[in-house]
Every structure is written in C-alpha cells, then in structure tokens.
From TrEMBL:
Subcellular location: Nucleus
This protein's encoding gene: LOC113741467
Keyword flag Nucleus: yes
Region (Disordered): 1-33, 129-180
Name the record gives this protein: Transcription factor MYB114
Native organism taxonomy: Eukaryota, Viridiplantae, Streptophyta, Embryophyta, Tracheophyta
Any GO BP annotation: cell differentiation
GO molecular function list: transcription cis-regulatory region binding
One Gene Ontology cellular component annotation held by this UniProt entry: nucleus
Length: 210
DNA sequence: AAAGAGTCCAACCGCGACCAG
DNA sequence: CCTGGTCGCGGTTGGACTCTT
C-alpha cells in the first residue's frame, strides 16, 4: 500500500503539509485517483455500508468516515456536479426556508445532489442572494391557500410538541431531527404533483416573509 | 505581469443518534 | 439498562482558483 502514498506526495504537496499534523499512518487531504479506484472496488464488493471494513479491506489508510464522505459526495453513481439550474436553486431556497440548514433533507429532494454541494452552494451563492431579496421585498407577504395553512399548522404543532417532549436535553444538535411524527418524505414528496401544484410551496414560504 | 482580495469547494472535525452485545 | 462501536449530519477550514487593481 505504499503506492498511493507516494502518488499522493507527488500529486498534492499541499496535502502533505496538512498531513504532518495528522495522526500517524492515516492519509488525509485530497483523494488520489488510485484511492478512488480502490474505494470503488471495495464498495462494489462490500456495498456502501460498514465503512470501517471498507476502509481496511480496500487497503486505504483512511478512516471509514472519510471513505463514506468521498463516496457520498464524489464517487456515488448518478451524482450531478455543478450547473445547478434555476429550478434547483429556487427549490433549494424554498426548502431552506422550510427546513433551515437541514442539508441532507434538502439534498434528498434534489436527485443527484449532495448535502455538501448544496451546503457549499448555499454558503457561497444563495445566502447573500436571499438576504438581498429579503431586504427588498419586506412586507409583501400575503395570506391564502388553505392547503398551505393546514400543512404548516400540522408541521408547527408537531415541532412544538416534539420540542417540549424533548425538553432541553440537547444543546447543539439539529432540533427535532427526523423525530417529527409526520412523514417528512411524504411531506416533501413532489413526485406525484404536477408543476402547477408546486406553487403551494412557493406560497408557503412567502408567508414567512410577513 | 504581478500582487492582493475574494470566492469556491473538497475534506475534516465534533457531536449526537442509533444499534448490537 | 448500559456501553462501545459505527454512522450520519452540520459547521468549519484552508488550499486552489478567479477576479480586480
């Protein structure tokens, strides 16, 4: 397994600087093609689970976590990279309004996109955009749409109940993470909706501006 | 052309949740 | 029920790249 290590040194010297402070024996920093290949092969055999096993079986001096991240954000099949469309961007903004920084949930609604990519995209593009927009369009919210109200109310009640149930047990964790009794997947499942009915999301989120 | 500033994005870290023993 | 191992998530970092002066 010395192969990829030497490759790494050649390929990315900057990484080695980082590695100097890293724990002994573990590779860190950017992944090489060789490492990617080994990881992909191991996942083909063992499946995208048991990351620690995969890391060792693949002969990678990486932790399981790192392998998982690499797979999820880069090597996974059907992954879309870059070129986030206006439609996708719009959806991200709306979902962020509803969900906050729940990047994995948001990513789940955007096929082929990763939470990391969306998070990065938000931090570098959208957060500024949205802030500007918010300043511009203050006080233009309007009410309407009973479906929105129903869903919103149901959601808020659940969140509220969930929080009191939990008390103040956790300090830093995502609030009510995946514990909502309504099915988030169902809630945001737009697959059976025609584009026109997606309007309700739009109205839903607009209500928050008021 | 060079230097500095700003932006992007891959990867790491820490924490909480989950699960098997 | 408790404990240790593992996984998944969100926040953060820092090197690479691009733009501006």
């Amino acid at each position: 397994m010395d192969d990829h290590e030497s490759v790494k040194e050649e390929v990315n010297p900057a990484v080695m600087l980082k590695n100097q402070s890293a724990e002994k024996g573990a590779n860190r920093g950017s992944w090489t093609d060789e490492e990617d290949r080994k990881l992909a092969e191991a996942i083909e055999i063992y499946g995208p689970k048991r990351w620690k096993t995969i890391a060792s079986k693949a002969g990678l001096k990486r932790c399981g976590k790192s392998c998982r991240l690499r797979w999820m954000n880069y090597l996974r099949p059907n992954i879309k990279r870059g070129n986030i469309s206006d439609q996708e961007e719009d959806l991200i903004v709306r979902l962020h309004k509803l969900l906050g920084n729940r990047w994995s949930l948001i990513a789940g609604r955007l096929p082929g996109r990763t939470d990391n990519e969306i998070k990065n995209y938000w931090n570098s593009h959208l957060s500024k955009k949205v802030h500007q927009k918010e300043k511009q369009s203050k006080g233009t919210a309007e009410m309407g749409c009973s479906r929105i109200r129903k869903k919103r109310k149901a959601m808020m009640n659940e969140v509220k109940a969930d929080r009191t149930r939990e008390g103040n047990s956790s300090s830093g964790g995502a609030p009510g993470d995946s514990k909502l009794s309504f099915d988030v997947d169902d809630f945001f499942d737009f697959s059976n909706e025609d584009p026109m009915t997606l309007e309700w999301i739009s109205k839903f989120t607009e209500m928050d501006d008021g």
